[in-house]
Amino acid sequence: MLTEEANIAVVGAGAIGGVTAAFIEQAGYGLELVCKHAALVDKITGEGLKITGIRGDHSVKMRAVATIRELSGPKDLVFLATKANDCVAAAQALIPFLKPESAVVSLQNGISEHALADVLGKDRVIGCVVGWGASHDTPGQLEVTSEGEFVIGNPDGRPDDRLAFVQQVLNRVNPTRISINIMGELYAKLIINACINSLGVIGGARLGRLLADKRARTIFIRLIAEDMAVARAMNIQVEPAAGGKLDYHRFLRDGMCAGIRRHLILRLIGFKYRRIKSSSLQSIERGRRSEIDFLNGYVCENGRTHGVPTPVNDAVRQMVHEIEAGRTTMSMDNLDRLMAVKGPSTTP
Hints:
Structural class: alpha/beta
Shape: globular
Largest sheet: 8 strands, mixed
CATH class of the largest domain: Alpha Beta
CATH superfamily of the largest domain: NAD(P)-binding Rossmann-like Domain
Mean pLDDT: 93
Number of domains: 2
Number of helices: 14
Strand order of the largest sheet: 5-2-1-6-7-8-11-12
Strand content: 15-25%
Helix content: 40-55%
CATH topology of the largest domain: Rossmann fold
Distance between the termini: 50 Å
């Protein structure tokens, strides 16, 4: 069982990992932060990690190291906040620093819990949905951009005494609730990311510009329909997203003016969150890979496993890979190519 004396580490000092580490440290829980870059280690241990945004201005010094192998000793609780592409390698590096009863909380976009369980053992892995936003301005300078919650739980839904302590710690960052259906919660967030992150890269645009375009809204609807079909085949009960405000089952329900209703909902979402620039678009702009294989790729692979066609997700995944390889340029004109893909029969 985890206690107040737990040795804690946060792996990853990007937007989510850095903000999480700063507020946990500020609450009095001693931790170590794995930063990846030695220059950032010096900045965090010297000047402190700078946090701005809707939670006010903070400067938080803490113990920091550049690599996992430099951690000071075994950890009871690890918050894994790397990009999804890096999480398996990070998990492998963590093994010498974990006890049999240690907990590793996955803070990735997409669904990486099963891949982590294959490396760490399923008893160590706790799933987590990050329902708030932050951005990485410059090294050591992070901004909290939106409020929200954490949702935590065991991927197999079983009770776990450790969850109460994890909730206690994360409550110092943002409100945290425990779910007995964390896979349904994670899948709900995956659907959002598989739309916003992928089309943000393809169009090279913020969410407001994307969802002002009828083509993008139509592709969103087709992606959601495919994603939900795969979830049904996997026996995942998808929870409402966006703090319970977006019920995908209701969103896809047919009826009078259903198509108009769906477009109106997406148009309103686009207006409210018009300034959002997807994390995958930010990664591409910095010359890094996106997390497409853990988002749309997760849907594509499980669709094949369960015999559910996913032509729109397949096309989106392929196009993002083309952009990463420099064979296709980010442009709203790319939406025409996706519109030509025959997707689910749901009225757009």
